[in-house]
Amino acid sequence: MPKLPSIPLTLGVLLGLLGFAPSAVIAETARPNFLVIVVDDQSPFDLQLYSPESKLETPNIDQLAAAGLTFDGAHQMGSWSGAVCTPSRHMIMSGRTVWHLPMPQKRNKNKKASEAPQPPNMAPANLAENTMAAIFNRAGYDTMRTCKKGNSYAAANAQFTVVRDATKRGGTEKSGSAWHGQQVLDYLQERESSKDEDPFLIYFGFSHPHDTRDGTPELLAKYGATNHSDRKTLPAANPKQPPLPINYLESHPFPHGHPGLRDEVAVSGVWERRDEQTIRNELGREFACSENIDIQIGKVLDRLQAMGQLDNTYVIYTSDHGMAIGRHGLQGKQNLYEHTWRVPFLIKGPGIPAGQRTLGNIYLLDIVPTLCDLAGIEAPETVEGKSFKPILNGDPNPIREVLYGVYCGGTKPGMRCVKKGDWKLIKYDTLDGAVHETQLFNLAANPHEYLPEHKRQAAQETDLAEAPEHAAKRKEMEALLLSEMQRLDDPYRLWDQPQ
């Protein structure tokens, strides 16, 4: 009697022998889809998820959080450019640390600062071939993106098989966030019409709430704001406008180290003003733009639900970095306070517990290795981030204990910070040595990083760097910062560090 061929007893074979249709097997083993939503310039503290007192309404983002996991310790590692979004988006696409990205080689205009070493290019020549879309293309995924143009990683963006990019910061359907939403809706319709069954990865980017924050008339009215454009006058005050941020100041107590920075002196509607009327109106514009984004997200999620794809799709919501808009007397993103260094971060999808929160201590550069892990794809050796899949599986431990931050887009060396546990240190070495400042915060007691200028009553609600009782903690954090700078190949040293 001839020997029968050996048949591996897989789940599909077993179910087939038991009379189940093959489609049941496919449904159970289908590769997940990914929808990665990235907004432009949004502090986590704009959202009620992070600041319950916020007036911003985002029901669809809230629903994502209710169905998934919210991270309280997500950060962007930092920047060597005034356009903080550039290195941030490089990190999102490549999974590499801030000093190991493709580095523009240009001389600093400030003569004394230019004597500092220029950052070397420590990125592999073939890095674009190992970025988000390229990795998933090789794994058989369909990849699509829509986002703003510019200040991004062009070589990585070009790897998506479908690219529909444009900068849309207007207040109409065609000139604002609805345009980006429509690109995703059209793409999903095309997939459905062609019966495309490949798994997909969609990078769903927006151009807002980055300025110019031209909101739709309806949402501007809701938040009492106007698209103010007359530099000679103040915007109209309106009781519907959001209140001032809790850590608002009329000016930062010392120069932040980037003279003439566009974000601090040239944002239309704000310019150099930090008065209450201007900041509240600008927050109203920002909230109008953010709620419009939420509306577009809701349309895409509804479409995925109607297609029967939502339950098998991991949805990430985040921003490329945070934003000041009046906090600490600042307007832009070129600082290392929590409102700007941290980012909102939510994820829902198959197997992720609903309505949970975690610290996480993740960077945006951890997105690529995590997506690979969830899809069962081996991440390239170029990836330096860490997969936070263990957290999604219920591990309560953060991915890392120590977090490092940098802003080096102005005069060098710039700003550095380090955080461990409840403690955070920020140092400033700017304006050719004219500014040497150190700040130390206990974030458990002072989560809003109040300064002496905020005139708080509690002893711990201030900068503790000069407090004698915290001298040992400051020394510990100084050593930790230097260690992280060395580990991450930071090419600069601050005035009081070994050169």
From TrEMBL:
Broad EC category: hydrolase
One MF annotation (Gene Ontology) recorded for this entry: choline-sulfatase activity
EC number: 3.1.6.6
Keywords, ordered alphabetically: Hydrolase
Keyword Transferase appears in the UniProt entry: no
CDD domains: sulfatase_like (cd16155)
Source superkingdom: Bacteria
Classification via InterPro entries: Alkaline_phosphatase_core_sf, GAG-degrading_sulfatase, Sulfatase_N
Gene3D superfamilies from the UniProt entry: Alkaline Phosphatase, subunit A
Pfam families for the chain: Sulfatase
The Sulfatase N-terminal domain, residue ranges: 32-377
Statement: the UniProt record of this protein carries the keyword Hydrolase: yes
Protein name listed in UniProt: Choline-sulfatase
Organism of origin: Roseimaritima multifibrata
